[in-house]
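Tip: read the tokens left to right.
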């Protein structure tokens, strides 16, 4: 298994954000982590990344307990929902800087071609449109050969051709045996890409399974209505 989580709790002030999450993520599958705003998705992802310290519980990634061991993060490629890049550096400078930090073999040249970023390499990040920044974000996230990939709203701002390229890239990575976690508000994208759905509601997992099982459980005719039914009924899986 790629990730194992047991009895994960996190509270911010009086707000209980995660309430005893138990979760196993198997290798080589694409998982969509879904749920309304405030359901705990971001806190769960940041706990896996070591960016949030849980109040209670256990997380292991690739067979290693993550507590007091930051090195496991080298095995993760992460695409944040909002990439806060330094605005006054050029695209190529950002790519070189991250390559130096990671000090891993990288495939940025191929990705730059795929997403048509060659004309933008000498432009400052502050001069780019939102969609072009997201393409840079994708290149930075995918240019290392890591076994675990976490993508937070990866489709934001992408034009139709870039979206096709992203989906092809995700499928290619999955074919190499990698494990991919995705959050997205675009249900068509989720339905097309995900092997498994994890649905969080008020800090708990309300559903874990594939889309066929979700449709059976909710009795809904399609994926979008099934997700809406989970939100309104709040029945545990």
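Filled-in amino acids:
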């Amino acid at each position: 298994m790629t990730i194992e989580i047991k009895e994960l709790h996190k509270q911010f002030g009086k707000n209980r954000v995660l309430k005893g999450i138990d979760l196993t993520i198997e290798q080589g599958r694409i998982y969509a982590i879904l749920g309304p705003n405030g359901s705990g998705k971001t806190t769960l992802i940041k706990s896996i990344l070591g960016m949030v310290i849980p109040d209670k519980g256990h997380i292991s990634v690739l067979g290693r307990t993550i507590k007091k061991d930051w090195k496991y993060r080298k095995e993760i490629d992460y695409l944040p929902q909002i990439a806060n890049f330094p605005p006054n550096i050029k695209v190529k400078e950002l790519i070189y800087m991250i390559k130096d930090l990671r000090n891993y073999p990288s495939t940025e040249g191929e990705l730059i071609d795929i997403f048509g970023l060659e004309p933008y390499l000498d432009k400052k990040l502050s001069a780019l449109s939102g969609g072009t920044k997201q393409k840079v974000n994708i290149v930075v996230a995918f240019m290392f050969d890591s076994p675990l990939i976490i993508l937070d709203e990866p489709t934001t701002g992408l034009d139709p051709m870039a979206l096709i390229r992203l989906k092809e890239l995700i499928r290619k990575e999955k074919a190499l045996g990698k494990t991919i976690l995705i959050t997205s508000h675009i249900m068509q994208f989720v339905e097309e890409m995900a092997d498994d759905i994890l649905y969080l509601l008020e800090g708990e997992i309300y559903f874990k399974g594939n889309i066929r099982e979700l449709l059976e459980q909710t009795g809904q005719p399609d994926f979008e209505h099934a997700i809406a039914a989970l939100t309104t009924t709040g029945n545990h899986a």
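The CA atoms of residues 47 and 53 lie 6 Å apart. The first strand starts at residue 3 and ends at 12.
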